[in-house]
Structure formats: structure tokens, C-alpha cells
Amino acid sequence: MNLPTASLPTLTTDIVPFAIRGERLEVLLARQAAGWGLPGGPIGVDEDLDAAARRQLVEQTGLSDVYLEQLYTFGRPDRDPARRMVAVAYFALIPIASGSTDAPAAGDAVRWAAVNEPPPLVLDHGEIVAVARRRLAAKLLYSTIALQLMPERFTLSELQAVHEIILGEPLDKRNFRKRVLALDRIEATGELARHGGRRPARLYRALRPGQVELIK
Amino acid sequence: MNLPTASLPTLTTDIVPFAIRGERLEVLLARQAAGWGLPGGPIGVDEDLDAAARRQLVEQTGLSDVYLEQLYTFGRPDRDPARRMVAVAYFALIPIASGSTDAPAAGDAVRWAAVNEPPPLVLDHGEIVAVARRRLAAKLLYSTIALQLMPERFTLSELQAVHEIILGEPLDKRNFRKRVLALDRIEATGELARHGGRRPARLYRALRPGQVELIK
DNA sequence: TTGTAATAGTGTTCAAATGACACTAATATA
DNA sequence: TATATTAGTGTCATTTGAACACTATTACAA
């Protein structure tokens, strides 16, 4: 097995796995020798970039079949003091755990952290999270990307809460519903969500679940 | 000097240098062994990604001090049949040559090509140009990026023509002027552009020339 | 010198989209 | 049966966007 030579930077991926948990936007971190950081690692010699990100996410967090999008490539020569590393960064969107367990896997090798009050992260991972967060917030406004954070069935109140959490500001309930229904990207299932102690809400589902489309 | 080993992909940049020439959007190509392709090449072991792109653009085309933005990282394992190459792609915006010469440099090592009817390019460079073109068109709508294609002083008709060429559709003259002036990112210099044979136009300049700002 | 060709410059009106705003409905539980 | 809690619904005013035509200024030709 060959080791990196001095003639080439090492190429890695770093993945920012986002999920809405409780009332916050959180990131899933992976334990590393130097502290907490983003999941990711070296890209195989003949491995596709997207495939590498997907593989590392599964290996390190157990998460599969999630939305994944290339974010930016970080390559400041001093971003890793030890050796030259260039990271192709991705972000992943993990649906809200609708039922059952929400711990993805891997005992104490991973942890969730709030994006707003993040713990110190290794290298420039804090910056990568910040860039990813900005991109996510921007895309909320002109795409259907928020649906990738939702479970298969969800209520309009839940969808609105997701928008409010990411944008960091309250939205008008009637205007939100008007807009989101006019887009014609979700449909009512006919079922009701019953939680207890209040009026049950209609459940909706995405018309084209896998796709992220530009809107307006 | 070390050569690439089998354990790491080779990291390169590819730059899509856009300019408005005549009535078309064009790209500057560099002659390569296998045909015409984008300027670019290997990134130095301790070289910053942006710096590498900038260096290669100067070396291969003579263009310096242009707007440069990271586009996307292309890494399909089969994109180069010879060896594994991962390319961090950039696009550059070159101001319309206001006066004097517009040939950037480097005799027959470079050539301009229309983006609409592009010649066959090496590897996946055709795809990279297409992605860059889409990004440029998208950014026209929500940023001041078009100003990076303008000379220091320009007329509103010229600015409108740039938009029309990139968007591929005619724009209403009065609405265009209303919008662009309301943004408050350019100012009249007080000078007039005189070309001959017609009414001279007012010259404008960017208020913050280097900056690309998000609008509306 | 006058006429012509060419481009610069300028407002209004209508339609559509956006944003603000408050009450009734349905359920679980005390 | 009363109460607490969340779901669900429409209108109006303002802002924004789109369509639209004529006059002004110059160079050059007749």
C-alpha cells in the first residue's frame, strides 16, 4: 500500500450531516483523535467523490439513503498543520425521525451538536459547518430542499417549524401554508396525526420525494 | 521530484474564463496535447486552491486581476481515461476590453470560442463549461456579478446587452434601467461615451468595483 | 444646411405577488 | 363539561413586476 508522497495533496471528503432535532438544527459529529469533527476521510484512488462521501457517512454514522450535495472544496495549505489536505465538503440532510429510535448508530463514536452553539471542532470544520448552514438557509428560499429534512409523512406545522428553525425567524402561518400549497409539491394523505391534548393535524407527503426542485 | 503514486488522485484546477466579445459569451481555451481544453493544471503541494487557479490563468493566458470563483469539484473516476484526476473548477470573468488590444497573450496557445456553439473539448471540459454557464446566468439574477464583466466605465446599454447575451433573451430597456439604478451599485461619472453616428451615452462606474454583492 | 439614420433616455398603468392580520375548530385531559 | 392546546382558514393594502412609445442627441450624407 502506498502512502501519500510529497508531490500531491491528500484528498478527503468532509460531510456536514444536518438534522432537525427537538427545536434545533443539529450536526452529527464523529470522534477523531484530536477531538470532535465532521465525518469524512480519504477518497479512494478510483472512487467517485459522491460515492466516497456516501460511504464514509455510512461507515462512520450508519446513515444511508440521505440527501447529499457537494458544498465547496476547502484547500487552504494550512488548514491541517500536519499535512496538506484538500477536502471536498458535502452536506447531508437527515429526515426527522418520525417514529422509533433516532440514534443513527455507532455508540460514542458520534454525537449530535447544536449548530448555533457548536463545540470546538478540529481543523476548519467549524467554518465548513458555517458555510453549509448558510447554503442550506439560502436554498430554503428557492428550492424544495426542506422536504429532505422531513419524514415521509408530516404536518404543515412541522414543515413550518423546520423553516423557522433554519431561517431563525418566525413565519406567518397563513402565508406559509398558502405559499407551500401553491407550489404543488406536496399532497394531503387523508390521514391525521394524533399526538394527544389537541386538535389532530392533516398529514402530507412529498409528491416527488427524492427530488429537490427550484421554485418560484 | 516525486511523481503521483497510485494511492492518491491527482488534484488539478480547471478554469472557465468568460468574456463578452462581440455579441456573444465566449470562453478562452488553452491548447493541450489532446486538443482544446480549459486552462488549468496540477495544484502545488503547498499551494492554495484559489492561488493555483489564479497562477495557471496568468501562466496560460496572461490574464491577471480577474474575478475568480470556485464552481464545483469534478471527480468522476473515468473523467480522464489515462489517470485519476480530480479537478477543482473555477470560473473567471474578464472585463470587456474597453480600449486597446483585447488579445490577452500567448499566441496560438489560446483561442476564444463561443459558449453556444463550442468546439469539442478534451475530457469533461464541455460539461464544466455548461455548469459554469448555468451558474453565471443564475447569479446574474441575484447578484452584481455582471459588473465583473464590464470595463471600468460603461454605458447602461452595454450593461443591458451583457445581461441579454448571458440570459439569452431581450430585456425591456426602461425596466432594466429602473431596476439597475435602484440597486444603487453604480453611479454616473458625468462623462459621455462618444462612438460616432449617434447620440452619446452617459458613462457609469461600479461603486464598489471588486465586490460581488447579493441583491434583492 | 438640412435631412436621415442610429442610439440614448424617459413614466405610467395594470396585474400579480407579498405581507399583515384574528378568529373558529377539533381534540385530550382535568 | 370546562379548559388548554394546536389546527385551520380569507381579506385587504401595499409592493413589485411587466407591458408599453415617444422624444433627444449626435454623426454623417446629401
Q: Can you describe what's shown?
A:
The structure is a homodimer of 216-residue chains. With 216 residues, the first copy, chain A, is an alpha+beta fold. The first copy, chain A, has 4 helices and 9 strands. In chain A, a hairpin with a 2-residue loop joins strand 1 (10-21) and strand 2. The longest helix of chain A is centred in the middle third of the chain and has 18 residues, at 125-142. The N and C termini of chain A lie far apart (51 Å). The mean pLDDT of chain A is 93. Chains A and B meet through strand 5 of A and strand 5 of B. Chain A binds a DNA duplex (30 and 30 nucleotides) through helix 4.
SSE layout:
The structure is a homodimer of 216-residue chains.
Chain A lengths: L9 E12 L2 E9 L2 E3 L2 E3 L6 H13 L5 E8 L10 E10 L15 E5 L10 H18 L13 H12 L5 H10 L3 E8 L7 E6 L10
Parallel strand pairs in A: 1-6
Antiparallel strand pairs in A: 1-2, 1-4, 2-3, 2-7, 5-6, 8-9
Chain A binds a DNA duplex (30 and 30 nucleotides) through α4.
Number of DSSP-assigned strands of chain A: 9
Tell me about the biggest sheet of chain A?
Answer: 7 strands, mixed
N- to C-terminal separation of chain A?
A: 51 Å
**Beta-strand percentage of chain A?**
25-35%
What is the C-alpha radius of gyration of chain A, as a whole number of Å?
Answer: 19 Å
The poorly predicted ranges of chain A are none
Measured as a percent range, the helix fraction of chain A is 10-25%
Q: Give average pLDDT of chain A, whole number.
A: 93
Put simply, the count of helices of chain A is: 4
Largest interface: A-B, 26 and 26 residues
Order of helices and strands of chain A: EEEEHEEEHHHEE
**Multimer state:** homodimer
Shape of chain A: elongated
Broad structural category of chain A: alpha+beta
